[in-house]
Amino acid sequence: MEQPAVRVSGACKTYERSDHAALLPTSFDVARGEFVSLVGPSGCGKSTLLGMIAGLLIPDAGSIEALGVPVTGPGDGRAIVFQDAALFPWLTVFHNVEYGLRAHGVPKAERRERVEDALRLVHLDDVADRHPYELSGGMRQRASIARALVMRPEILLMDEPFSALDAQTRTILTDELQRIWLETRPAVVFVTHNLIEAAFLSDTVHLLSSGPGRIVKTYEVDIPRPRDEADPALLGLRHDMLDRLRAEVDDAVLRRAQAAEVTAL
Amino acid sequence: MEQPAVRVSGACKTYERSDHAALLPTSFDVARGEFVSLVGPSGCGKSTLLGMIAGLLIPDAGSIEALGVPVTGPGDGRAIVFQDAALFPWLTVFHNVEYGLRAHGVPKAERRERVEDALRLVHLDDVADRHPYELSGGMRQRASIARALVMRPEILLMDEPFSALDAQTRTILTDELQRIWLETRPAVVFVTHNLIEAAFLSDTVHLLSSGPGRIVKTYEVDIPRPRDEADPALLGLRHDMLDRLRAEVDDAVLRRAQAAEVTAL
Amino acid sequence: GGPTGPADAVRVGFFLNVTHGPALLAVAGEFTSALAGLPVEEQVFASGPEEVSALLGGSLDAGYLGPGPYVLAEGRAPGRLRLLAGVVTGGQSMVARTGSGIRSVADLAGRTVAVPAHGNTQDLTLRLLLDRAGLRAADQGGAVEVVPVKNAALSEAMRQGVVDAALAPAPYGERLVADGLAAPVPAIDAEIAAWRLPATVLVVTEEFARANPAATRALVDANARAVRRAQADPASVARLFNAMLAEATGKKIPERVLRESLESMRATTAIAPGAMALMVRSAERSGYSGGPVPASALVPRPG
Amino acid sequence: MSTGPGDRAGAGRLARARRRAAAVLMGTGRKSWFILVIVLAWWLITAAGWVDPYKLPSPGDVIATLGTLFTERALFADLIATVLRLVEGWAIGVVAGVLLGILTGTSRLLEDGIRPVIAGLQAVPTIAFLPLAILWLGFDGSAVLAITAFGTFKPMALATYGAMHQIPPTLLMAGRALGARGLFMQRTLIFPAIVPNLVTGLKMGWSFAWRALMAAEIVVTGAAGLGGVLELGREIGAIDVVMAVILVILVVGIATEQLFFTRLERWVNRRWGLVGAR
Amino acid sequence: MSTGPGDRAGAGRLARARRRAAAVLMGTGRKSWFILVIVLAWWLITAAGWVDPYKLPSPGDVIATLGTLFTERALFADLIATVLRLVEGWAIGVVAGVLLGILTGTSRLLEDGIRPVIAGLQAVPTIAFLPLAILWLGFDGSAVLAITAFGTFKPMALATYGAMHQIPPTLLMAGRALGARGLFMQRTLIFPAIVPNLVTGLKMGWSFAWRALMAAEIVVTGAAGLGGVLELGREIGAIDVVMAVILVILVVGIATEQLFFTRLERWVNRRWGLVGAR
Ligand SMILES: Nc1ncnc2c1ncn2[C@@H]1O[C@H](COP(=O)(O)OP(=O)(O)OP(=O)(O)O)[C@@H](O)[C@H]1O
Ligand SMILES: Nc1ncnc2c1ncn2[C@@H]1O[C@H](COP(=O)(O)OP(=O)(O)OP(=O)(O)O)[C@@H](O)[C@H]1O
Ligand SMILES: [Mg+2]
Ligand SMILES: [Mg+2]
Questions:
Q1: What is the dihedral of CA B194, B196, B201, B202, to 10 degrees?
Q2: Sign of CA pseudo-dihedral D268, D271, D274, D275
Q3: For A93, which DSSP code?
């Protein structure tokens, strides 16, 4: 069997000064070039899990391997895109995208070429000189994606990249992400609350439970690409997931209410 | 004909120090007890319109009547709920809900009773003594709704009340809103980006164009209540609206790109 | 303006300085019995200008202070204060940095000389000296740099050679000598002594004097007693000064330094004829004076 | 590997308690190592005789002087006098600054007119006004108090303006929509809304109050108060007295910070929900 | 009612230009009415003879004194000397404070140890250190400069710590994920990220620098400077000189605020995207 892009084996995490786990021991693989989504209620540990794969957080137990190498910190081959784009406001789009290459000491000429390629890929080549505040929310997320792609990652991690956008921009960017992914084919771990988005983009969707998170169900999406958002199969899948989630949430609301009572004492 | 709850006649607005209109002249009525949604791309003037109905903004031209009286400022009979709940962080849930009654000089005993009723209505009676930071996002929005309902408004204005919540909580609260509305029957103007939400809740949905906003299409939703979110008729309506909006956005993206070039000079 | 009627207390200001010796004695003894039935409230000041402000602003009735601030006050607000009596004369000495070679006023040309503050008694005295020797201060277009240096900073300024000489109030000149940083300049001290300039005088606000003639007379009498005691027993002044200093800081000034300081001054209620006029002339020539000082302000009017 | 949920919770609680105790110890260590290093260096330098003791008395000398000042002299009374004056002047300045800030901050015209003047005055060191204060207010302590209050007033008014611009607009809109206006609005919405930002201002004001008061005490009150002792120490060249007084001010400063401002800040941040529920 | 889009745009541009011109005039009026009121009241009080001219000289007297000071007493040289010293001391303090803040702020241990000491020192008025500075650095400009720089250093270091805690964590995570670390991270991410918060700190530092400098200039009188002139006025009881110097400091303060800090703030806020695109 080919080595997976990401292997999460029993990784779990409890934050300092917190008295309950953010993520219970969790295991899954992401094959090379596979698109995996993580879906689950707020606070179920999705960002925690992603942060651990990125090497920004250290799991309390269990291990994480990226491209066969144990993850001990942020490293080559992995790139991450955040919900709020997290662009550096004092740098232009060009320099934002160039930042990671500078940090890695890539020579100037090569930097220029790679940044221009990345910006073309996300259709931002004509706003390279603008600062983030001069961009719309959608453009900011494109820039953030370019900043990740310019590192030529084999693993792309995305934490709710589109959830701060309005519905229309979101739909457009989801389409674009499908195109870009089909062009560049990194392995992707994609966190979202949007079930249609998850179904539309993924090969595999992991559903996490709330409270201390763990994977409660996994869906394989066997619909050929490029896909259409209005595909009835996608809508059906969404409906299944929603039901499952609603059960999870009710459970969680109960649990959270109890926890809150303890807190309030 | 019965007098409408809200009558917007040619209201328009250009902000100071802005060089394009936030909202072009717009007219529509909201009947008493009617649920109207406003949907449209980001920046199309939905919040501006709602602010004018609330009396927080003054239209440049045109007029707005609430319950037959011209709106000149915030006033009785109208209440508003914001996206970020906008609870007063230093007050408990109880005192937050009580605030408007205090401002209106309602006597203490009556305040207590009305606040308790409102909190029961949104299922928050057992967290009345908590501060906002001790609540989940969904609980905060419930509190914000209670704060509006306690004023016994005939007109309830809601500006993306659920858009900061995760998908699951959102679904639950949308159900709740339907129940509360059926119980109390105020006229509602509801702003959202979520097309299913709009279709699910409304009697009438107005679609606004982007850029300087104006109403481009109006949908009547004739599905009996209580409704089910998975109703195929709702999904069909959503699809129609999405197509229409996507066309609007493409148009707007073009226009905005041109505007941005002018800005960048 | 404060109350114009009779006061219900006498508010008296003074410095915690050796040159205020009789004032210290008065505060510690002579005033303890009330002045003509009025209780005494003492107030310690750190410098003359604040004391003058307090007197003119109506929050102080009487004060021990140097003749410099007094004549400047009379120039700016004539007739508001009344000179009651002398307290101490002398109490200042010229010291020159070791190795500076300064032996006379003429040697000060081209040098930097420290005084405690603009327009204070030492500053006015120094300018008299320069004037007599045909020299001028640099701020008057002359060749002698006169710089104000706070007593606190004087020894460091001297140690670092920033100033060549200082006309210092007791005991700071004596301290510099005792610390080996400077040497006395007897020729200049003799010249100053000849003027019999007051170091400290007692003043009262005109308003208070008019409304409280009895208390004013009692103040003059108490001062006279204190002056006599200080003259008869300088050691008691030294003891009292050190006790008060130690009370505040836990420190004392060496006995020897204090004794030498006290020898440089003389407690007396008399004010030499012409001494105040010299001060006025110096103030006017140096541009400090805000206006003419009435002649009546130059002689004590105890009654 | 399997433990019952009860055991687990109990073990967790124990571990937490232990962690907390360790944290307190660690915290003290973490926060004082630098002070220890400085004191050690100071002691070494003076003990080795590398500098003139006149320029830098040893830690022991300073402690001894401090002891003398406290036991044999009235330094404690001076300290109390100073701190009382400070608290009084600061409190007056805080109230005046916040009131002016809120009252003028709700009107563009008032704010535009008054704010630049206060910002300009803030550039003028408060001591510059001391001669005026003595002339106008007299010498009986009210000048010192006025100077201290004035020194606090300006940064507080500026902090209030700043804080008012940071009130989330939706909070104001929510208040207006609920019918709040005028004084009711200022009392029940604007004031509480700016409290968290004011806490930083309070600290700033305290720092300015100290400066103004020390400067005033040095000139005005002769021997009463820490400023007087500091100045007398300077006059007679007793550097150990100067350092002892600095030490006292330092300790008072740290104590105020730790016992008052940090707690206040924590309480306000908690109450205003600026930290998560835990 | 119907105008072509071109006409409309043209009219809009004109209206905008007119509005802008009006706004500038209005702005000046709005910002100076309070000053005018104060000056008028001052003039009235003195002209009517309600107060002792010794306690409050008239505006005319103060202006006349100011004229004399500038023409005959070389006040301009004093002003320049003071401002140069101020800028120099402030700049040194700013650089030192920010560097220390960043370097120690990236390590919990360093920050925990050093921050409380600096916070404590901030409570001690900088003048209290003047005797030490004179002893150690000499009775000349370097002591004054050191005191000014030290007065700036403490609030700048504290502002830097504060600012570092306000960097959005995702920016730091993004930087780390992109491979930034150590000095590269501090230089290219942490420093630029804190700049907007530092601007407020710069103003604070400037204000503290003024205080420290004035206090130092009053004592260390060798060189020219406004502090010396202020002290001269105080010592000879010339309240008009005191007020004239206050006026000069006030004008310098307002000018610095308007010409430097406000512009800097606006530029930074624009560049860092803290205001909308327009
Ligand atoms: N830095 C932190 N310190 C302490 N607890 C944290 C921290 N970050 C997250 N948590 C807690 O850990 C749990 C999981 O958080 P996480 O951010 O991973 O959830 P999530 O699934 O990404 O939620 P969302 O959908 O809201 O982004 C939550 O209970 C959260 O409160
Ligand atoms: N206070 C303001 N000053 C200037 N322009 C403003 C202001 N508020 C909004 N605008 C502008 O007016 C237009 C309409 O804004 P509005 O907030 O009403 O849009 P919206 O439809 O509510 O958008 P969203 O869906 O993002 O909430 C936008 O171009 C916006 O930039
Ligand atoms: Mg998350
Ligand atoms: Mg909006």
A1: 90
A2: positive
A3: H
Cα B229 from Cα B234, distance rounded (Å): 7
E112 touches chain D (CB under 8 A): yes
CA distance C252 to chain D (A): 9
How do beta strands C62-65 and C198-205 pair?
Answer: antiparallel
3-state DSSP call for residue E143? helix
d(CA B129, CA C121): 72
Query: By CB neighbour count within 10 A (0-12 exposed, 13-18 middle, 19+ buried), where does C235 fall?
Result: exposed
Contact between A147 and A96 under an 8 Å Cβ cutoff? The reply is: yes
The minimum-distance atom of ligand 1 relative to the CA of A49 is 18
Write b or e for each residue in C43-71: b if 16 or more Cβ atoms lie within 10 A of its Cβ, otherwise e: bbbbbbbbbbbbbbbbbbbbbbbbbbbbb
Tokens standing for residue C205: 């606000």
Note the residue count of chain B. Answer: 265
How far is the C-alpha of D127 from the C-alpha of C150, rounded, in Å?
Answer: 17
CA-only gyration radius of chain D, Å = 24
What are the backbone angles phi and psi of residue D68, rounded to the nearest 5°?
A: -60, -45
Q: Which of D196, B100, B138, D170 is nearest to B127 (CA)?
A: B138
Tokens standing for residue A192: 């979202």
Rg, chain B, Cα only? 19
**Is pLDDT at B110 greater than 60 in this prediction?**
yes
Distance B263 CA to ligand 4 centre (A): 23
Give ion ligand 4 contacts, CB < 5 A.
B 47
- The phi, psi pair for A56, rounded to 5°, reads -85, -20
Question: Which of A120-124, A136-140, A168-172, D82-86 shows the lowest per-residue confidence on average (mean pLDDT)?
Answer: A168-172
Q: Are C111 and C100 in contact (CB under 8 A)?
A: yes
Q: Which helix (H) or strand (E) holds A218?
A: strand A215-220
Separation CA A217–CA D219 (nearest Å): 78
* A258 Cβ contact list (under 8 Å, min separation 6): none
As a whole number of angstroms, the distance between CA E269 and CA E257 comes to 16
Q: Does the beta carbon of C45 lie under 8 angstroms from any beta carbon of chain D?
A: yes
For tokens 């220890």, what's the residue? Answer: D36
Helix (H) / strand (E) containing C182: strand C182-184
Which value does ipTM take for this structure? 0.83
Please list, in sequence order, all residues whose beta carbon lies within 8 angstroms of the beta carbon of residue E204, skipping any fewer than 6 positions away. D204, E155, E159
Evaluate whether chains B and A are touching (3 or more beta carbon pairs less than 8 Å apart): yes
B44 within ligand 2 shell (Cβ under 6 A): yes
* Chain A residue at shortest CA distance from B209: A168
Give the containing element (helix H, strand E) for C200.
strand C198-205
- C115 phi, psi to nearest 5 deg: -130, 160
Interval between CA A164 and ligand 4 midpoint (Å): 13
pTM, two decimal places: 0.84
Taking the C-alpha atoms of residue C120 and residue D16, their distance in angstroms, rounded to an integer, is 69
Which among A13, A26, A38, A44 is the best mutation to test ligand 1's pocket, defined by most ligand atoms within 8 Å of the CB? A44
Q: What is the pLDDT along chain C (303 residues), one digit of tens a residue?
A: 444 567 788 999 998 888 998 998 888 887 766 777 888 888 888 888 888 988 988 889 999 999 999 999 999 889 999 999 999 999 999 999 988 899 999 999 999 999 998 889 999 999 999 999 999 998 888 899 999 888 888 888 898 888 999 999 988 899 899 989 999 999 999 999 999 999 999 999 999 999 999 999 999 999 999 999 999 998 889 999 988 888 877 788 888 888 888 888 999 999 998 999 999 999 998 888 888 999 889 999 887
Instruction: Give the closest residue (by CA) to ligand 1 atom 11.
Output: A22
Residues ≥6 apart with Cβ < 8 Å to B92: B128, B129, B130, B131
Task: Report the residue from D12, D16, D277 with minimal CB separation from A263.
Answer: D277
Cα A194 versus chain centre, distance: 12
